[in-house]
C-alpha cells in the first residue's frame, strides 16, 4: 500500500524522461529473476520511454539458454532485437527493445575497425561519424541503470560516454517500480552537460 502511494507521488512529479535507457544486469541477476525483464519493459512502455536496452553480462551465453523464452516474450509487447551469440533475432512491434547477452563494447569497436580495414577505408577519412556508422548498437542512452553492487561493464563504452549513470542499491531480483521511478526522478534532477 505504501509503495503504491509512493509510486503515485513519484509519477506525479516526473516531467522529463530519458528517451533511451540501458539496464546493465549480471548473469546471476537474469538467472535469479528472468521475468523482471518483461516487467521492466512494461513499465517503460507505460511511461512512454522510446527505447530500452538490456545488457546481460556473462562470459558464457549458453548458461542463459533457458532464459531465452522469457526474453523472447518481450516481442509480444515491443519490437525486440535479441543479440545472442553470433546472431540477432528480430520480432514484434512497438517500442524498441534490445537485449544483448554477453556483448562487449571493446569487441564491438574492434569489429568496426576490422570491417573498415576490410572495406579499404582510408585512415584519414575515419572520424566519429564514420565509426558510429559501423557500430552494432547505434544509439546513445540518456540513462544507464546498474542494479546491485557489481561494477559497470564495457558495453556501449563508446555510446554511453555522455550518459547519466544511476546505481540502484537493490539487486535485479528485488527491483520494484518505485526503484525504477527513483532512477527517473534522479535523471530529471540532473543538469546534462554532454562533456562540456
TrEMBL record:
<dbReference type="GO" id="GO:0045547">
    <property type="term" value="F:ditrans,polycis-polyprenyl diphosphate synthase [(2E,6E)-farnesyl diphosphate specific] activity"/>
</dbReference>
<dbReference type="InterPro" id="IPR001441">
    <property type="entry name" value="UPP_synth-like"/>
</dbReference>
<dbReference type="Pfam" id="PF01255">
    <property type="entry name" value="Prenyltransf"/>
</dbReference>
<protein>
    <submittedName>
        <fullName>Undecaprenyl diphosphate synthase family protein</fullName>
    </submittedName>
</protein>
<dbReference type="GO" id="GO:0016094">
    <property type="term" value="P:polyprenol biosynthetic process"/>
</dbReference>
<dbReference type="InterPro" id="IPR036424">
    <property type="entry name" value="UPP_synth-like_sf"/>
</dbReference>
<keyword id="KW-0808">Transferase</keyword>
Amino acid at each position: 500500500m505504501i509503495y503504491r502511494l509512493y509510486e503515485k507521488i513519484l509519477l506525479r512529479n516526473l516531467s522529463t524522461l530519458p528517451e533511451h535507457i540501458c539496464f546493465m544486469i549480471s548473469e546471476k541477476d537474469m538467472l535469479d529473476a528472468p521475468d523482471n525483464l518483461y516487467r521492466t519493459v512494461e513499465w517503460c512502455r507505460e511511461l512512454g520511454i522510446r527505447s530500452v536496452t538490456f545488457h546481460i553480462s556473462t562470459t558464457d551465453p549458453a548458461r542463459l539458454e533457458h532464459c531465452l523464452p522469457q526474453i523472447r516474450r518481450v516481442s509480444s509487447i515491443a519490437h525486440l532485437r535479441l543479440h545472442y551469440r553470433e546472431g540477432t533475432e528480430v520480432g514484434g512491434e512497438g517500442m524498441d527493445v534490445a537485449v544483448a547477452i554477453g556483448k562487449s563494447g571493446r569487441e564491438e569497436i574492434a569489429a568496426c575497425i576490422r570491417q573498415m580495414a576490410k572495406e579499404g577505408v582510408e585512415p584519414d577519412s575515419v572520424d566519429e561519424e564514420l565509426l558510429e556508422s559501423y557500430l552494432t548498437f547505434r544509439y546513445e542512452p540518456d540513462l544507464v541503470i546498474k542494479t546491485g553492487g557489481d561494477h559497470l561493464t564495457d558495453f556501449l563504452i563508446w555510446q554511453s560516454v555522455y550518459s547519466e549513470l544511476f546505481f540502484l542499491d537493490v539487486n535485479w531480483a528485488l527491483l520494484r517500480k518505485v526503484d525504477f521511478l527513483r532512477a527517473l526522478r534522479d535523471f530529471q534532477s540532473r543538469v546534462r552537460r554532454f562533456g562540456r
